[in-house]
Amino acid sequence: MDVPEGAKFVFFVVPVFLISIGLIYFFFKNDSTLNNLDSRDEQLQEAEEISGSQSNTEDIDFEEFKIETIEEGEGKGAEVGDEVSVHYTGTLKDGTKFDSSYDRGEPFTFTLGIGQVIQGWDQGIVGMKVGEKRKLEIPSELGYGETGQGSIPANAGLVFETELVSINSEN
């Protein structure tokens, strides 16, 4: 039986062409699927990092500003504009000490309420009497905020054990 030339073409070339197209489709389809999976994995990893950093922020920050009087002082309370001298120990929420005037043997002196110190101090020292000791729990927005400072990380809540040593009134 003689097969015409056109039939040889149809029986050989067309099936090879169709198989080739099918293989190309299969490989490219799987390649894009792998790319989509890689992309999805990257998106999941980014989401975990974001949620992880949010939970870390909750772990290192305070929700609200708190003042606790540990020991009462005597005399009039410190007012905005007064020059005050304060002994303190500063720690992070987890207890890591980052600074202490006690270690230096000299209190820190500043003018209250004019922005020479973090807002938490300007608010937390007002009203203290000489000899008074307070514990201040300061949320990051009243401390060093999103930038941090030195060994203090960004968004860190701060704890200060403070003792008012003296008030030098400007009034």
Automatic annotation (TrEMBL):
Gene Ontology molecular function terms on file: peptidyl-prolyl cis-trans isomerase activity
Catalysis: reaction(s): [protein]-peptidylproline (omega=180) = [protein]-peptidylproline (omega=0)
Keywords noted in UniProt: Isomerase, Membrane, Rotamase, Transmembrane, Transmembrane helix
InterPro entries named among the record's database cross-references: FKBP2/11, PPIase_dom_sf, PPIase_FKBP_dom
Stretch forming the signal peptide: none
Transmembrane segments: 6-28
Residues in coiled coil: none
One protein family per Pfam: FKBP_C
EC class: isomerase
Highest taxon of source: Bacteria
Documented EC number(s): 5.2.1.8
Keyword Isomerase in record: yes
The keyword Transmembrane is annotated on this UniProt entry: yes
Matching PANTHER family: PEPTIDYLPROLYL ISOMERASE
Protein name, as recorded: Peptidyl-prolyl cis-trans isomerase
Native source organism of the sequence: candidate division WS6 bacterium 34_10
Taxonomic lineage from the root: Bacteria, Candidatus Dojkabacteria
